[in-house]
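Single-chain item
Fold in token form
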Amino acid sequence: MKHLLLAAGALGLAATPLRAQTTNSGTDKFAQLETLLPTPNEYRTASGAPGHAYWQQRADYNIRVKLDDEKQAITGSEDITYTNLSPDVLTYLWVQLDQNVLDKNSITTATQVAQVQEKMSFQAMDYLMKSDFDGGFKIESVKMKGGKDLPHTINHTMMRIDLPTPLRPKQSVTFSVAWHYNINDQLKISERSGYEYFPEDKNYLYEIAQFYPRMAVYHDAKGWQQKQFLGQGEFTLPFGDYRVSITAPADHVVGATGVLVNPDQVLSAAQRKRLVQAKTATKPVLVVEQPEAVAAERSRAKGTKTWTFAAENVRDFAWCSSRKFIWDALGIKQNGKDVLCMSYYPKEGNPLWGQYSTQVVAHTIKTYSKFTIPYEYPVAISVHGPVGGMEYPMICFNGGRPEKDGTYTAERKYGMISVIIHEVGHNFFPMIINSDERQWTWMDEGLNSFVQFLTEQEWQRDYPSRRGEPKNIVPYMSMDKNLQNSIMTNSESVLQLGNNAYGKPATALNVLRETVMGRQLFDYAFKEYARRWAYKHPEPADFFRTMEDASGVDLDWFWRGWFYGTDHTDLSIEGVKWYTVDSKNPEIENARKREMINAAPKTITQQRNLTDLQKTLVDDKPELKDFYNTYDPTATTDADRARYQKYIQTLSPEQQKRLNNGLQFYEVNLRNLGGLVMPVIVQMTYEDGKQELVNIPAEIWRKNNEVVTKVFITEKPVVAFSLDPYLQTADTDLSNNSFPRKLAPSRFELFQQQQQAVPNPMQMQSSAATPEKKANGTGSTSGTN
């Protein structure tokens, strides 16, 4: 502790810092982003909103496909009507052939990297042998309406169609494509689409997507998005209306994007009745019950049925088909509109799927609608099959299967709920707020993972969310920078997709909401972004600018640090100096000096001399003593009191009060070791045990990005300072967050070299049940719905 001397004429702390902090340490982390963001124009404004001349193209589809359940193949044909709403004249069109990622000669196969291990699983071998499977599109014809062949060029996953006459603004062209391809075994060749074979009942379950040639996006900011599909960067597509007819074995149940328009032709009377009941039910209604699905598994229909679906204003279409499907449904109201939430799953998914899936779908639609925009599509579907998690308009494919005995771990349960929330949530990002996934994965996965976190927390208090909490991203952000990319990295070049495109942006938005902006400002701005760009094609700048425009918060430093860089948070308290005001009152100050002298530690020499040195020379010769041998510098004299009274008379009443108010002054030295500028959240613990939290905006670092000194003034003595006590900033090293320093606990685990499989808790409880309970069927969980 030191005294802070106050002099008459200069009372209080000076208006300017005592120590100059006017260097930005060679960088400027608060520089504005204008040089990095595109120049605003009539299509995209400086506020982040679509401009008055904003436009986007349209593609409408009439598709006919047939599923071959014997050969696991698809044949199809389509009519595409493409409308040019741009101001440009187009001489050719680009069509995506994403299924060509499974072509034997694909770029993905040619550039995949791997290593041969001395011991390899068959699954790893299947990955290496992927090129043996021929799953690419076989384009049979490309014709103009009327039957004339269209010149076309296939370049891996892209196909250019050369138009016979230029397509001018406001004009449309209709052409047709016919094709076929082989469906991949999803368990061997993991893609976003495929089949699963069930050897027990010799049935197939199909989850089908990217099954048709799809129009690429022609964009005001970058023209045609014709970047090749390599497998990691997903899709960007124009909006349009779809009518899709799917021909499958007659005993199959088919689910798809959109509304089933011919239920009378494909559903039984009982199934149609249940479907109607589900629209007003309070809990899911089984449209196809498990006994029906089990009976269908044993049969093999010789004929086919054609299921026809219609979907309006969507960017894509996907479907599923199997005779194994159980189907349940639950109607909800969302913003006054009816939404039918549904699930399709085999009996192997029960009891998890029958209990949770459709309820999770409904919860997700409601929660996302609250944080973004109202859901406007008529259905929302979750399908269980071989694809672990993939999203399409109104339908998604999800994993999460219990053990064969019907039991499951908590991790499996919450993993299943989370993946359904995540994939259903993709209806909002990017199916409605239609960002370019091929270029910027974070704009759909990151934003979606953030709202997924909010939705999980509203499902169950303290839900074990995998992503969103700042503490969960610490291991990634503290890695070697050579193992990281900035969030603003093209999808195909990202090193760690899950951390970079899902976890880090989701965490960044959570930090924005909870720590930087506050919930009220953030929620308003986030909803405004969703409102502005619903059914449009936003770019990163549109998001950055809207969040600032609608909140009035300058966030350029945040985007620069979290999205354009790879710095991490590591703030440290380097030291604390404690000052109190010298009251000049000799009675008070001399008593304080006496306490400090008495409390001062004795040196080892002084301690030993008390016993070893009985007398000194002065003790033997008193004549050597003078005034100073008896002088007590801490004793108060009349002269001291007189000088104090004279001094007091020179001060105003306010100055006298300032001199004696007993304030404590703490000079806290802070260092930014990680490089990422962040708000400084300081918790002070007083000697009476009470605590106070102070939130300092990140702008404290604007004059010096590395070192700052902050003065805290308190009425009570502080015994400890701590940074980020509630883990809000993803600080990667908590050991330097406290003063005085605290030991940061860590743990290590000892384990046997050979570990036996441990039953999950449900299995252990089941095995402990009495024989009577087992006989009555109450000691285990069955696999029925």
User: Anything to note?
Assistant: The two ends are 70 Å apart (CA to CA). The first strand starts at residue 2 and ends at 4.
